[in-house]
Amino acid sequence: MSQQFIKLVLPLPALFQIQMSSDEEPHVFPVIPDIQDIPCPLCEKKTILHSKKRRRFRHGHAWGVGALWIELDVPRQRCLSCDLTFVHDYGLGLVRTSTEVFRKGITERCHGRTISDVAREYKIPYTTVERWFYQYASVDTAVHATHILVDEFATRKGHHYATIVLDAETGRLLSIVPGRDVSAITVALQGVLGDVRSVVSDFAPAMAKATTRVFPDAAHVLDRFHLIQFFTDALRRRRRFLNEARRHHHVRVIDRALACRPEALALDDREVARSCILEDSFTQNLYHGLQHMRYVLKATCDGQARRRLTDWLERYQFHACGPLAKIAKAIRVREEAMRQTIVSRLSNGKMEGTNNKIKLIKRRGYGYRNHERFFLRLRLELGR
Prior knowledge:
single chain; 384 residues; alpha/beta; Nucleotidyltransferase, domain 5; 3 domains; 5-stranded mixed beta sheet; 12 strands
């Protein structure tokens, strides 16, 4: 290795002189510090050398070579005034067999990757890399974005929840805070900087209130997945309410036949949907309302979206089918946001995928008691 390459991969203070490694140990580089007076850390008085020991520390890493070690004499000083004995590490942060530069370098390589991959690649114990990450990983929540996604997830289902904000274009995690009320969502949105033009969320009233409070000029887009889910959940509840004698097909077959678009189904599944509709008028009304809503969502301009949405609301707002009228009432309250949803091409797809990743991370860790470490792990594996 050349001397210039060694200085690049082994960043050391100017007081050190790096020597070439030997042929027997090409990964070990002896370093010699300049002669200097070492003051006492308590009284800052003069100290003398008590003892010294030759030790090796991991300080860098090179591709195809592996870990690079430095070898130096670590002095143990004694103060002449207060008689304090201490070890001087030259500001390198010497702990066991590594320097602070090496530990921070491993921590930076953990961003966007799992700890197990980094530990396997650098041949370091998993628990060691995990401890370094929680010690040195830095979190920067001030990120600029134009279109953002907001949703909640369970840190402990039924007990504790948290709010997460993603970049709609890249899927990068922007902000994460505990809680799911209006104040928590407001804090999460305030962690995003820039000219935010669109905010995509579900139909929760707290989401709308926090969005209006933080980004009053931004367009509030509702997630289409949750809208369609209103209909599919109502169809599933109705199917369970019906008598067992009316279930001529498997449960999953019926759910798929009633939830999917007719043109996307096979002939057998279309026949299943047709038989379910003919057997129950309640199911028929929900199914027709779902297909009509899909027709509304296909509008391409604001005027067309306004006309189709108005026709849908006039038809189903006071419908005899209770769940259908309830869905229409929820849409009427958010009519302006619904028109934005129809015209906008944004969706909460990246957020739903991220929520699935969060569930896998919780399951792999058998749950997390410490929310700070759990959020840090999410930033580790969800960062871009």
